[in-house]
């Protein structure tokens, strides 16, 4: 910083005021200007924070600003200027560096300097008068009515709260304070003066008042910094006199520390050499050779093998800063008893009447996004702290009812998932997200503890609430497997050891609660996620064949017999005034949702749901639900009165309705939904329900499942590009809970490794954490039966260290006891010598099972493996060898047409097997070369002449069939992929694109026009079809925008659109590369040029040039390019029918049903585009034909379909307008002579493209009677 600026700032600080002989601070008359200057200096501070550091070095806050508040607090301007400067000076240093400690040494030094100044500011604030002054001002502002509170008053309240937050936020420095527990720290002194000034009551009032809700989150943040060194349990158990529990706990801690000290002392004594230190010398280490080959020499006495290390003098490799483990130290301490009593009373008062209200407001702000980043962590902290305090003080669920719900579990879990994801994406701020994840985990742990306390409550309603929450948490897999997922994804580089400790304790608590809940409730239904294989095309064909076989069993005679049985009951139902059981149709319709004829919420139009209604009537008839069938028939007739072929006439008799039902019963019996419904009705879901379901209506979910199966079969028939590979899709299943099965999910190498990693810190772990680790190991070894799972060398080393001191420490006796029970199992496993290799690796449950029961090969024929169905008998092996010999002796045509595996599977007579099993057996029996089997044979890249001729022959033979590609691929000489064959057909100009060989539905009857038919068509025919396409497109767009059309209109439009689509497809093939007429295109182009369309012709030529560049860069591109008109000339041309006909002759495709613009088809290759560009160049460079003479309107205007009027335009007030001659309809005009042309008060000018334009000043303007023209 400049020295002059430094001197000016220091002079400004001196000019604020001074202290007299009585230590009373007297403000200078210019104090206001000085404070404003300091605010301005801070606002213009540099990145090094030079001004802030200078003011901290000058101690301006303690020497001038705080005394100014003490003795001049009645000055109104002081609360505006002075408070602003205090808030600015006490701003947290971490926020100045964007919540991240700087890594640069220079900025780290500045950061530490700022922290030191902030601690001095905090020391200066230990003043009762300053806090009373602030409290009095805040009380005055809060007592104001909300309508009398001005904006300046709100800013003053906010600044006071921010100032308190800044002071409490300053972290302690343990190296300077060196305060032990039960001693007064700087933070405790601040809390004491806050209590004396009455700030705690003001905070509670601000949190609960309706007029100060905007400060709720700020109050919560202040409370978090007030209680950051405390725990809820510690405050709740605080008493004026030490209770017995605290005494016993302290005595145990003292005994543990003394035992630990004694153990360390005894170890040090054992390490001391027996000889005196004066007797040094050189020692020889036996059985260890030096690099020279002689015995290793040591120049100091060795008492332990571990002391002999050759790595002591080596330079250790540096660990990268981003790979260092995160150190999350525990900042909690035990304050003095008076401070703890004050905080305990404050927390009790907050819980009694403020907690639920404040947490509700804060949660609403979080949901609505009215918070800043990181503010949700204060919400999580408040939940964790006050729910823990509530458990140990006076447990009442009503105090924390706002946060004790299933939605809270969901919210905390969502935050945990989010923080885990951010550690992966935002790697630069991993420590930041790690601390947040730790806070969320501790909150989740406290929610589980509160559930456990609710179970122990004497009130039955509280217990019932706990059971409801636990049923939701244990039911969904997202809640149930949260701890398992966190253990599996733990990374010691990103997350601290404290996080792992809390995670292990949380998992222990969750498993304990889940085990107790499952033991109390024998049948627990849970939801789990699974995967189901998506059926392939081949499997669905087999399924369809089985369905068809099952349907074939019920022939027409069976249907007649069945109808004879049920027709009597149906007829009586129609002829009676009421339906069976005395129920009317309206009653059934009101009680049974399934009789509503249509689904109003479905995306399918109501008019298209007729078939679904008929199908449902058939399901009702075949499952004994006759009254529902009758009601649904009549309701459907009211919805669709114009479809008597489906539901009968509107006023038909009851006997006629019986005939309608009979036709539905007979015709729809083979539908998949009806068949599935009959099977479900016959079999039932289980044995106990068969009898009841046989006479009861079919369940609605059975019908839906049957409909799904029917849709799958229909999709299989219509989809021609079904993927042959097996895919899986996620599904949700509901089944009975098995605790041991859930426990087996923890048998993973990552989970065991994390538990062993935490056990390495056994010397500093609490007894509870040690118990959680041992309990999990006990589950692995004894409950799951996988002792090999924890057999790992590093874990054994940890046990070895523990056993060395276990006899001297009482808290390690359980570890020794567990190891003594585990050791015999390990010794038994060591009977297999491979175990000594296995202890070097972490193992999964499957690997542990193999170690214990015996290793198995990939076919499952080991000791512990069960005999599978894929085993081969002697007869099967003999038949396999025989079929291989037959294939070798077969003619070459058979070998070329069929592979060995296909040949064998076609003639196989034993149990069916997969191709893989056949391959493995052929290799095992050495019947084929393994290298040839392993190498995938691919068809040659180049096509032979014979293959090309065969492809052309197959296309000509099957081009009129419904499945062109299926027939071609089946008869190809060399098996190739569908894409390769389609590309070759386009290259041979057999088709335009892949849509030409798309599988057609049963109703599709597209006709393709030959080249001779194309040549015989006139331009007028093409123009009529083009106009019809345009009109139908406009009609369909209008119908979509209006959304109102009758059923009959929609049906007719659908049929017409189908016909138009067929014609469009034909037109796509008509004007293609193979039917390109150069002369026709040239003649039509000259006509367009004569009609002033040179701009549009040039645009088409330029678009084709760009397309040519694209296909040169990417020859394999199969995308069509849209022709987007830009400019009035191009847009006008696209609406001209002659221009559209010319585009079709060039080979452009008109827009389809879902398209807007004309397109350059992808079938045009390089030579096709070059041919068209040649023609367009000739058109643009040729001489134009002579134009026809202009015309004027007939004098008899009333006889003309077009009326004329004279428009006088003032050339001074309006610019002249351009009118194209081609836009004028000449049918109602007569030709003018050359002399008449001279009389026109206009002239013809040439624009930039040579198009004739009439400049009108005083001329005839023609207006059409029709708005369309």
Automatic annotation (TrEMBL):
Q: Which domain of life is it from?
A: Eukaryota
Supply the Pfam families for this chain: HTH_TIMELESS (PF26019), TIMELESS (PF04821), TIMELESS_C (PF05029)
List where this protein forms a coiled coil: 707-736
Q: Which residues does the annotated region (Disordered) include? A: 525-555, 853-872, 996-1064, 1188-1225
Biased amino acid composition, Basic and acidic residues: 1025-1037, 1196-1223
Q: What is its main location?
A: nucleus
Q: Where in the cell is it found?
A: Nucleus
**Which residue intervals define the domain Timeless N-terminal in the entry?**
24-285
The residue ranges flagged as biased composition, category Low complexity, are: 1041-1050
Q: Does the keyword Nucleotide-binding apply?
A: no
Question: InterPro entries recorded for this chain?
Answer: Timeless, TIMELESS_C, Timeless_N
Q: Where is the composition biased (Acidic residues)?
A: 1051-1062
User: Does the record bear Coiled coil in its keywords?
Assistant: yes
What residue stretches are annotated with the Timeless C-terminal domain? 1087-1168
**Keywords carried by this UniProt record:** Cell cycle, Coiled coil, Nucleus
Bias type Basic residues, positions: 525-549
PANTHER family given for it?
A: PROTEIN TIMELESS HOMOLOG, TIMEOUT/TIMELESS-2
Which family, according to UniProt? Answer: Belongs to the timeless family.
> Mind telling me what this protein is named?
Protein timeless
Q: Name the source organism.
A: Orchesella dallaii
């Amino acid at each position: 910083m400049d020295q002059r600026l430094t001197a000016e700032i220091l002079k400004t600080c001196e000019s604020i005021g001074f202290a007299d002989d009585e230590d009373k601070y007297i403000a200078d008359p210019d104090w206001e200007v000085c404070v404003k200057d300091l605010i301005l200096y801070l606002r213009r501070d540099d990145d090094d924070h030079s001004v802030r550091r200078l003011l901290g070095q000058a101690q301006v806050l303690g020497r001038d600003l705080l005394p100014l508040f003490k003795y001049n607090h009645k000055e109104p301007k002081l609360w505006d200027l002075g408070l602003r400067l205090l808030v600015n000076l006490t701003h947290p240093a971490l926020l100045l560096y964007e919540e991240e400690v700087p890594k640069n040494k220079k900025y780290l030094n500045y950061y530490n300097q700022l922290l030191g100044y902030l601690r001095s500011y905090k020391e200066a604030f230990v003043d009762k008068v300053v806090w009373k002054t602030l409290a009095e001002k805040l009380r005055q502002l809060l007592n104001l009515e909300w309508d009398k509170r001005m904006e300046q008053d709100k800013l003053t309240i906010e600044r006071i709260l921010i100032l308190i937050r800044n002071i409490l936020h300053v972290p302690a420095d343990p190296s300077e304070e060196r305060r032990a527990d039960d001693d007064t720290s700087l933070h405790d002194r601040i809390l004491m003066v806050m209590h004396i000034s009455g700030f705690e009551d003001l905070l509670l009032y601000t949190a609960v008042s309706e007029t100060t809700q905007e400060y709720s989150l700020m109050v919560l943040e202040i409370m978090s910094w007030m209680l950051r060194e405390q725990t809820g349990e510690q405050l709740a158990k605080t008493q004026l006199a030490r209770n017995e529990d605290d005494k016993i706990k302290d005595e145990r801690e003292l005994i543990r520390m003394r035992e630990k000290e004694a153990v360390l002392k005894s170890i040090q004594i054992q390490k001391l050499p027996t000889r005196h230190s004066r007797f040094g010398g050189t020692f020889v280490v036996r059985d260890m050779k030096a690099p020279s080959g002689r015995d290793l020499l040591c120049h100091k006495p060795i008492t332990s093998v571990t002391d002999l290390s050759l790595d002591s003098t080596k330079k250790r490799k540096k660990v990268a800063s981003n790979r260092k483990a995160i150190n999350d130290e525990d900042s909690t301490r035990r304050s003095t008893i008076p401070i703890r009593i004050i905080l305990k009373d404050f927390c009790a008062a907050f819980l009694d009447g403020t907690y639920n209200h404040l947490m509700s407001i804060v949660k609403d702000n979080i949901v609505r996004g009215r918070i800043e980043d990181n503010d949700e962590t204060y919400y999580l902290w408040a939940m964790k702290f006050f729910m823990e305090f509530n458990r140990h003080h006076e447990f009442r669920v009503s105090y924390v009812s706002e946060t004790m719900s299933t939605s809270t579990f969901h919210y905390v879990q969502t935050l945990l998932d989010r923080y885990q994801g951010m550690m992966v994406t935002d790697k630069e701020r991993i420590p930041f997200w790690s601390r947040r994840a730790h806070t969320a985990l501790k909150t989740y742990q406290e929610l589980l503890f509160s559930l456990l306390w609710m179970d122990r409550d004497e009130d039955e309603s509280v217990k019932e609430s706990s059971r409801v929450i636990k049923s939701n948490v244990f039911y969904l897999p997202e809640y149930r497997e949260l701890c398992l997922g966190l253990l599996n994804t733990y990374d010691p580089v990103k997350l601290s050891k404290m996080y792992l400790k809390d995670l292990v304790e949380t998992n222990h608590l969750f498993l304990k609660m889940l085990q107790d809940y499952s033991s109390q409730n024998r049948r627990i239904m849970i939801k789990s996620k699974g995967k189901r294989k998506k059926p392939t095309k081949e499997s669905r064909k087999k399924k369809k064949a089985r369905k068809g076989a099952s349907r074939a069993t019920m022939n027409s005679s069976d249907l007649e017999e069945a109808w004879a049985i049920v027709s009597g009951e149906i007829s009586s139902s129609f002829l009676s005034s009421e339906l069976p059981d005395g129920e009317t149709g309206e009653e059934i319709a009101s009680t049974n949702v399934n009789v509503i004829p249509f689904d109003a919420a479905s995306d399918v139009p109501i008019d298209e749901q007729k078939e679904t209604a008929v199908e449902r009537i058939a399901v009702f008839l075949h499952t004994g639900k006759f009254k529902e069938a009758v009601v649904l028939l009549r309701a459907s007739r009211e919805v669709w009165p114009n479809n008597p072929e489906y539901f009968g006439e509107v006023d038909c008799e009851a006997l006629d309705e019986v005939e309608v039902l009979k036709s539905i019963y007979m015709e729809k019996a083979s539908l998949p939904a009806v068949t599935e419904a009959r099977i479900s009705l016959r079999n039932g879901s289980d044995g106990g329900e068969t009898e009841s379901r046989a006479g009861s209506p079919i369940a609605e979910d059975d019908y839906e499942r049957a409909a799904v199966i029917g849709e799958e079969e229909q999709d299989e028939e219509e989809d021609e590009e079904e993927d042959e590979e097996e895919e899986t899709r996620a599904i949700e299943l509901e089944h009975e809970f098995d605790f041991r099965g859930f426990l087996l999910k923890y048998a993973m190498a990552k989970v065991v490794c994390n538990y062993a990693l935490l056990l390495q810190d056994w010397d500093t772990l609490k007894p509870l954490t040690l118990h959680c680790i041992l309990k999990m190991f006990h589950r692995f070894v004894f409950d799951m039966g996988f002792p090999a799972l924890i057999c790992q060398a590093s874990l054994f080393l940890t046990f070895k260290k523990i056993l060395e001191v276990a006899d001297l420490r009482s808290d390690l006796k359980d570890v020794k006891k567990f190891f003594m029970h585990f050791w015999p199992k390990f010794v038994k496993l060591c009977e297999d010598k491979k175990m000594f290799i296995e202890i070097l690796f972490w193992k999964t449950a499957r690997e542990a099972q193999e170690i214990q029961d015996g290793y198995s090969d990939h076919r499952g024929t080991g000791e512990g493996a069960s005999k599978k169905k894929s085993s081969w008998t002697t007869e099967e092996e003999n038949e396999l060898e025989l079929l291989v010999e037959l294939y070798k002796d077969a003619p070459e045509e058979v070998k070329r047409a069929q592979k060995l595996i296909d040949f064998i599977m076609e003639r196989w007579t034993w149990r069916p097997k997969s191709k893989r099993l056949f391959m493995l057996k052929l290799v095992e029996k050495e019947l084929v070369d393994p290298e040839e089997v392993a190498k995938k044979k691919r068809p040659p890249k180049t096509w032979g002449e014979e293959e090309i001729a065969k492809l052309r022959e197959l296309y000509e033979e099957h081009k009129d069939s419904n499945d062109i590609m299926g027939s071609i691929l089946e008869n190809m000489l060399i098996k190739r992929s569908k894409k390769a064959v389609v590309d070759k057909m386009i290259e041979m100009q057999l088709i335009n694109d892949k849509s030409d060989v798309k599988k057609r539905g049963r109703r599709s009857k597209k006709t393709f026009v030959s080249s001779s038919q194309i040549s015989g068509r006139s331009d007028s025919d093409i123009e009529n079809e083009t106009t019809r396409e345009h009109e139908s497109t406009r009609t369909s767009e209008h119908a979509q925008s209006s959304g109102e059309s009758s059923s009959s209109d929609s049906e007719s439009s659908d049929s017409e659109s189908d016909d138009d689509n067929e014609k469009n497809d034909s037109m796509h093939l008509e004007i293609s590369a193979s039917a390109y007429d150069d002369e026709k295109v040239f003649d039509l182009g000259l006509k367009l040029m004569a009609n002033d369309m040179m701009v549009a012709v040039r645009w088409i030529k330029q678009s084709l040039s760009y397309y040519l560049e694209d296909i040169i860069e990417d020859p394999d591109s199969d995308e069509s390019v849209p022709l987007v008109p830009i400019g009035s000339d191009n847009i006008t041309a696209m609406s001209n029918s002659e221009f559209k006909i010319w585009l079709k002759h060039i080979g452009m495709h008109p827009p389809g049903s879902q398209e807007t613009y004309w397109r350059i088809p992808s079938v045009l290759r390089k030579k096709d585009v070059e041919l068209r560009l040649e023609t367009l160049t000739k058109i643009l460079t040729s001489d134009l034909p002579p134009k026809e003479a202009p015309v004027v309107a007939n004098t008899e205007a009333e006889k003309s379909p077009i009326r004329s009027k004279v428009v006088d335009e003032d050339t001074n007030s309006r610019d002249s307008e351009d009118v194209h001659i081609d836009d004028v309809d000449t049918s109602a005009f007569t030709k003018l002579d050359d002399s008449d042309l001279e009389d026109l008060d206009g002239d013809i000018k040439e624009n930039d493209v040579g198009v004739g334009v009439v400049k009108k000043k005083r001329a005839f303007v023609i207006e059409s009677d029709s708005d369309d023209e």
